[in-house]
Amino acid sequence: MSSSRILVLNSGSSSVKYQLLDMADSSRLAMGLVERIGEETSRLKHTPLTGDGAERERTGPIADHEAALKAVAEELAADGLGLDSPELAAIGHRVVHGGLKFTEPTVIDDAVLAEIERLVPVAPLHNPANITGIRTARALRPDLPQVAVFDTAFHTTMPESAARYAIDVATADEHRVRRYGFHGTSHAYVSRATAKLLGKAPEDVNVIVLHLGNGASASAVRGGKCVDTSMGLTPLEGLVMGTRSGDLDPAVIFHLARVGGLSIDEIDTLLNKKSGLIGLCGDNDMREIRRRIDEGDEQARLAFDIYIHRLKKYIGGYYAVLGRVDAIAFTAGVGENAAPVREAAVAGLEELGLAVDGDLNGVRSDEPRLISPEYARVKVAVVPTDEELEIATQTYALAALAGKNS
Ligand code: ADP
To answer: Does the predicted TM-score (pTM) go above 0.90?
Structure first.
């Protein structure tokens, strides 16, 4: 295959994020974001990454995903990177929910698309937008391989003991209620990159990955395979997040409905959009929360403490699940940038072989790095995630294979 460009699309309900990569050297050629699709105030931000081109912005109504992708194609064409180029090898799509069926990245055909649609009831917020993105891209370049890379795929190796909720089995199966986990592309990439940082093969290391962005999840990875993760049927379970509550007693929901008189939709919005850090202190940006703590703000302090307490419970829990831990890896916006979060999450865990070196923790860098002192039995790492590169890598590998077989 002489063509080596991959377009990565992450389609949300009213947004499309994209990157164009050249897999000959894994370099990024362009990236951008279309926001508020379907509104009067749509915006496209395009950043060319070759030459000295500056960021460009378009504002004004973009009616739907088809119009959005056309606008993206025009911006890329203006940089000499048009989507009609023979250089484009394939398009990779982030798909949030792959259920139990999709354990690997998959070349999309009509049957695969139908299966992704069948999963809409368990991912009503995400899969419909992903499907729209796929349909639009297929219409634009029907000749190209299009690959779905699933957020859930990495977690399909979880044993039933971790994946099942302790509820009636027949009811659970009828409604496909189980723990699927999300952020899998990031957990896969970061656990592999952590093994590399330790100079070992992924098969030889056990890692706890803490993906702390606005959404946040932890995973326990044994020898390169996920054995537990903190998100469940939906991305609501687990850690305290920017706007999501994470774990709570399910009876809180009955209580809010019966005693508080809230509707199911109101509770859904409360737990997904008005809880977590924003619910606790009114801010979901860790920088702002740290600034308020430095000014002596008690509410921000408590929000931070609750966030850290939950994180510690997962570190301890996954330590026990794995039995032996070689490294803990922090990633995503908070994990990569917030040194106080890393320090507080590991504080007091010396008996478990865990420690953070204050100086190393304070260093800012885009490179994977260790922040534990030399003597620490369990290494603590900061490993920047790169979900787009991971999607492009997997898409390119499959497209090359599809090319050989055709
Ligand atoms: P997502 O992809 O889930 O939207 P990101 O991984 O981009 O989220 O993380 C976004 C979050 O990262 C922000 O809400 C903020 O809390 C945190 N963040 C970003 N930069 C910093 C920083 N320099 N210091 C502390 N926190 C940061």
So the answer is: yes
